[in-house]
């Protein structure tokens, strides 16, 4: 698919609205789909069910998993982190309101759900965590995590066609990950620093029609917050920025919701892209 047509498709469907309106006649739904505090969402579709995880920072249990059949009606089905035994002592060993679990990525691969995140605020800095389950509807089914030492925050997990597993983090940097041991390849590979906004972070990698697409947040978490995208033929780059970036932002507008950024992309059963 040409980059322009894909980007235009993403642009037209980043906010829940038009495509489902045609499918759900005489129904009403609203943004935000999860009212309240649900920052940094990461969402996927598995068969005909949609799943999302959001940040919880220092709250415990953490990393709530929500499920929906129609993208309108959601229910809380589990927490990725619900047992003190999963990370002994971590739930109370924090230093501030901006510590804890945030900016997780939820993915599904070969019959298994993977939930990758970092815990910020420990004496030794950042702890990376990778939870797994085959039953996302049960708290107890989520595994004890494999821990790792991420270079930066906001980890994304991506499986390439050759079976290699990668973690992308703030910066934007890339490392190969051993799922069993948590070992990360060295040195980290720099992918893209965005379009000039501060704090390029929140990366997500997708592969489509032979292209790697790199979605990131940049501009900080205040009024310049935005979502930008680039693509490359090789996962290590070089990445070509989309000419009409940012693909999502409310900066410079009078929209009710401001500071919009840090997105993720997924498809519905009709092949439409959503974020």
Automatic annotation (TrEMBL):
GO terms for molecular function: hydrolase activity, hydrolyzing O-glycosyl compounds. InterPro entries: Glyco_hydro_43, Glyco_hydro_beta-prop_sf, Glycosyl_Hydrlase_43. It comes from the Eukaryota. The record marks 154 as: Important for catalytic activity, responsible for pKa modulation of the active site Glu and correct orientation of both the proton donor and substrate. The active site is at residues 40, 201. This is Beta-xylosidase C-terminal Concanavalin A-like domain-containing protein. The keyword Cell inner membrane does not apply. The keyword Repeat does not apply. Residues 1-21 form the signal peptide. Keywords: Glycosidase, Hydrolase, Signal. Gene3D superfamilies: Glycosyl hydrolase domain, family 43. Belongs to the glycosyl hydrolase 43 family. GO terms for biological process: carbohydrate metabolic process.
